[in-house]
Amino acid sequence: MADIEIKRFDRPDEHRPFEGKGAADLVNVFGQTIGRATLEPGWRWSVNVKPIAGTELCEFTHLNYVLSGRVRITMADGTTAEAGPGDVVGIPPGHDAEVIGDEAAIVIDVGQFKDADFAKRA
Known about the structure:
The chain is mainly beta. It is built from two helices and nine strands; from the N terminus they run βββααββββββ.
């Protein structure tokens, strides 16, 4: 018989702070990693995560559910999209992203976190 696993983001298995603004909290449940990113106003991947990642653009696939705030995603080819509360978003590798407005964006991510180094310091 399998055990039920319950985790909370306020007691994450791992906390990954970004450079200056925001962080990702990760919980592991049944071998899957789920992230909650808190992206503060003014946060931008190319400023706050790029120094950690060491890549020109974010090279992870994200499957996001936006709880609050607004985020603009810009792909390498210049295509942009905006997501806000209630939106479920699939983001392929090769993108930048930024918070729009004065409200923090809170995003649940069920993308490539298993064994991933997203925003993980060496």
